[in-house]
Design brief:
The chain has 8 helices and 10 strands. The protein is elongated and about 70 Å long.
Length: 269
C-alpha cells in the first residue's frame, strides 16, 4: 500500500526485524501506518529524501518506527499537530490524520512517541504492549531446506506459492484437499504445512488442529483471504505458527519463512 503512494524522487527503506506477534486490528494499524508514512513522504518530497519504516524489538516490546530525514517539525506546529482539523497541507489535508492516529493507538493500548530535530527529520515510534500469550512463529527449524506441503484448492495460488518456495531452495509438494494432506503426511514427514483457510471438504483450522494433534513438531502456517477477528487470532496461537493474509507479496512469504528458520553459521569446510 505504501509503495503505491511514493512520490518521484522519494526513497522508502524497510527494515524488518523478527519480533513476537501482537494481537491488534490489522485495518486500524494499516490506517495508522499509511498516515504516518504519508506525512513522512510529504516532509521529504521537496528534497528527494528518505523515509524508513522499521520493525524492531526494544526492551522486550515490539515497535514500529516511521522516520524521515526531512527538515523536522517546527515548535509552533508540534504544539498543535494532534489537534483535530489542524493541517499544514492546505486543501490537500483534513487535519484529522494525526488526531485519528492517536485515538486509534490509545484504543489499542499502543504507546506513540515522537522526536524531531531541526534540519535532520522526525521519527514516530509505536510501542506495543507486552503480551502473555504464546507468540506465533517462536518455534524455529535448524534447516536450510525444508520439506513443505502446500494445501490449496486454487491451482493458481498453489502453483505461485510452490514456485516461490522452490526458488528459495525448499522441497515442496502441493495438494488440493485436507484428506490428501493427511494421507501423504502419514507416509512422508514434513517440516511445514502451509494451508489455505477455505478448503472444499473442511477448513484450514480443522486441518491445522488435526495436524497439530497428530504431528506436534510440524510448523503450521495458515493462508486466508478472510479478515480474522481479534479472538480468532488470539486463539490461533495454540494451533498455527503464523498467518498470511491474501493477497501477500513474495517478500511477506519470505519473511514468514525466515521467522521459522534458524540462521545457520557457514561451514568452515
Amino acid at each position: 500500500f505504501v509503495e503505491t503512494q511514493i512520490p518521484e524522487g522519494v526513497t522508502v527503506e524497510v527494515d524488518v526485524k523478527h519480533t513476537p506477534d501482537v494481537v491488534s486490528h490489522r485495518q486500524d494499524l494499516m490506517e495508522v501506518l499509511l498516515n504516518l508514512t504519508g506525512n513522512a513522504m510529504d516532509a521529504v518530497e521537496d528534497n528527494s529524501g528518505t523515509v524508513t519504516l522499521r520493525v524492531d524489538l526494544n526492551d522486550g516490546q515490539p515497535t514500529i518506527e516511521v522516520q524521515d530525514n526531512g527538515v523536522g517539525i517546527p515548535d509552533e506546529i508540534a504544539e498543535r499537530m494532534f489537534d483535530p482539523f489542524f493541517s499544514t497541507k492546505g486543501e490537500r489535508g483534513t487535519g484529522l490524520g494525526l488526531s485519528m492516529t492517536r485515538d486509534i493507538l490509545v484504543g489499542h493500548g499502543i504507546e506513540l512517541n515522537w522526536e524531531t530535530k531541526p534540519g535532520k527529520g522526525t521519527k514516530f515510534t509505536l510501542i506495543f504492549p507486552r503480551t502473555e500469550q504464546t507468540a506465533q512463529g517462536q518455534r524455529k527449524l535448524k534447516k536450510q531446506q525444508l520439506s513443505v506441503m502446500v494445501v490449496d484448492d486454487d491451482v493458481y495460488v498453489s502453483e505461485m506459492i510452490t514456485d516461490i518456495l522452490k526458488d528459495q531452495g525448499h522441497k515442496v509438494q502441493a495438494v488440493n484437499s485436507a484428506s490428501q494432506a493427511l494421507d501423504l503426511v502419514s507416509k512422508n514427514s514434513i517440516d511445514l504445512l502451509l494451508t489455505d483457510l477455505d478448503l472444499p471438504e473442511t477448513d484450514g483450522w480443522k486441518l491445522a488442529q488435526k495436524m497439530r494433534t497428530k504431528y506436534p513438531d510440524i510448523i503450521i502456517g495458515l493462508v486466508t483471504g478472510w479478515p480474522l477477528s481479534l479472538e480468532e487470532r488470539a486463539s490461533s496461537a495454540q494451533t498455527v505458527d503464523f498467518i498470511l493474509n491474501k493477497p501477500f507479496t513474495m517478500r511477506e512469504l519470505k519473511l514468514a519463512m525466515d521467522r521459522i528458520q534458524m540462521v545457520l553459521e557457514p561451514s568452515e569446510d
